[in-house]
Write a structure and sequence with these properties.
The chain has five helices and 36 strands. By secondary structure, it is mainly beta. It has two domains: 392 residues, Beta-galactosidase, Chain A, domain 5 (Distorted Sandwich); 102 residues, Immunoglobulin-like (Sandwich), CATH 2.60.40.10. It has a 16-stranded mixed beta sheet that branches. Strands 5, 9, 10, 11, 12, 13, 18, 23, 26 and 27 form a ten-stranded antiparallel beta sheet that branches. Strand 9 and strand 10 form a beta hairpin. Helix 1 packs across helix 2. The chain is elongated and about 80 Å long. It starts with a helix and ends in a 7-residue tail after the last strand.
């Protein structure tokens, strides 16, 4: 292992500590470069996988939620606390849910120094806990702080998970470095970031670079994050992947979120709040220029939907509903949760956007996943490179809408009020707004262009909602059986498309009306 570090030009930990910075003990300097990290990741992929060791696992098991929340980083030990810098960082302690330690280095002028673990950089609500914990534990991850050093806006913690607060300074969904075999009928493989290199920004810099080594049984990777925080958080990500063995389902730029219920499936909620979700839809911008909105579901069984594309322009899990009254929650603030948009850099070729939806009965479980699956088979020995940009936003990632967008999806009993309701019929009501719709007055010649994979579409029409700029599409779906139905709808006028395409997976018998 020593030879591996030396050949890659990466720092080998010394027994003695060097000078301290911000109260943290740092190791000796050693040369570092991202090219060396890529060489190391490739060399690791050519060797059998070695699972990480977890010293003192029995002790960490005792640090459950309450005990872990009582261990906080001493703000006086915060690194890089230059005036008004948003790139000062703190460290996370290990615990029951974050047992595997990571190595962290600071990088300045091409030299890296390892951050030594010390229990003295933490404060302990239970004072006796400090003496019970071994002195040779490690760090679980890190977070970057606002200039006031009181709240964080970025964190890397657990496996390859990371997340950022959007312009509303509220956390929500997470991203991951890589997904392996997500949604298959066998345990998912969770690659992990095992080491991080944090590059100290120059004074007044608008971005910070973070590099990471990714390791798992099937793949290794070298990651470079260039992260800026003007208002929304933007991450330019370069992922160089080295495959150990064949992977059935490789997920690039994976996102993880939560959807319990919304106005679409409100009857399934057993909660007092009108809606509970971190994200309410999957947005896609295809390589051919079509913009798509797929409302999220909380299905009865695990479901994966695949959307074929080539050189996608982007996809993401969005929280479009920004009205507090639709959540009525002044502690979790779902109305302020960020949306995340994935913008590929360069051509990604052919593949599929995958949407994973898992049943849930509570808001504490992440049950939604989205990622890009390349079309080509992934074989051992493959070397892959993907570059993309993540936007953590509060508004529409496209900016001012140039085309009408979906703002709500509702369902109910089909048929006409006051008349016998037909069997096996569900009414769909979809609201659109923005773009060319804003320039239209009430008229009755807009078309709802609808396709369904099975069943019959009945009584489609589009009208403007009085007193608003919204346009509402109505139609009934008559369908028998319980197999899912894939539905498409968009609004057009004289053959011209006015809105994005609404997609929906409807399961008869699980009617949310």
């Amino acid at each position: 292992m020593t030879a591996l570090f030396a050949s890659a030009g990466l720092p080998w930990p010394k027994a003695e500590a060097a000078s301290a910075d911000g109260g943290l003990q740092l190791g000796e300097e050693a040369p570092y470069s991202f090219d060396a990290l890529k060489k190391r990741a490739k060399a690791l992929a050519e060797k059998p996988y070695v699972a990480p060791k977890i010293p003192h696992e029995d002790v960490l098991e005792t640090l459950g939620f309450e005990a872990y929340q009582g261990i906080t980083f001493d703000p006086e030990k915060t690194m890089w606390r230059e005036k008004d810098s948003p790139f000062a960082f703190q460290l996370f302690h290990q615990g029951k849910f974050f047992k595997t330690p990571v190595k962290l280095y600071t990088v300045e002028d091409g030299a890296a120094r390892q951050i030594r673990y010390s229990p003295d950089v933490f404060s302990y609500k239970d004072g006796s806990l400090r003496n019970k914990l071994p002195d040779d534990l490690g760090y679980a991850g890190f977070r970057m702080m606002e200039p006031d050093n009181k709240s964080d806006w970025l964190s890397f913690l657990g496996a390859s998970y990371f997340r950022a607060a959007g312009p509303e300074r509220q956390y929500g969904l997470s991203a991951r470095g890589l997904a392996v075999d997500t949604g298959l009928p066998r345990p998912e493989e969770f690659p992990r970031f095992s080491e991080f290199w944090l590059h100290k920004p120059k004074d007044g810099a608008g971005a910070v670079e973070v590099d990471a080594l990714l390791e798992s049984e099937s793949v290794t990777g070298a990651y470079r994050f260039l992260i800026s925080q003007p208002d929304e958080v933007v991450m330019d990500i370069e992922a160089d992947l080295y495959v150990r063995k064949p992977i059935e389902r490789l997920g690039i730029a994976p996102l993880t979120s939560m959807f319990w219920f919304s106005e679409t499936n409100r009857k399934d909620g057993v909660d007092w709040r009108p809606e509970v979700h971190d994200s309410d839809g999957l947005a896609m911008w295809t390589g051919k220029g079509e913009r798509i909105w797929r409302p999220l579901n909380n299905p009865a069984t695990v479901r994966t939907s695949a959307f074929l594309d080539e050189n996608p322009r982007g996809f993401g899990l969005l929280q479009r509903d920004r009205l507090f009254a639709d959540y009525e929650d002044d502690s979790t603030f779902y109305d302020k949760r960020p949306s995340v948009w994935v913008e590929p850099i360069g051509d990604w070729g052919a593949g599929e956007v995958h949407l994973l939806e898992i049943p849930t009965d509570d808001e504490i479980y992440d049950n939604i996943g989205a990622y890009w699956k390349p079309a080509q088979p992934i074989k051992g020995g493959d070397e892959l490179k993907f570059s993309y940009r993540l936007h953590w936003v509060a508004g529409d990632p496209f900016g001012a809408p140039t085309i009408g967008r979906v703002v709500s999806t509702r369902t109910g009993q089909g048929g006409v009020p006051g008349q016998p309701r037909p069997a096996n019929t569900t009414k769909f009501v979809i609201d659109f707004e923005g773009g060319p719709l804003d320039r239209l007055e009430q008229r009755f010649d807009l078309d709802a262009v609808i396709d369904a994979s099975r069943g019959e579409i009945e009584n489609p029409y589009v009208i403007k909602v009085v007193g608003t700029d919204r346009w509402r599409a109505f139609f009934d779906l008559n369908v028998e059986g319980t197999e899912p139905v894939e539905i498409r709808c968009y609004v057009a006028l004289d053959g011209e498309t006015l809105t994005e395409t609404w997609l929906y997976q409807f399961v008869p018998g699980a009617n949310p009306a």
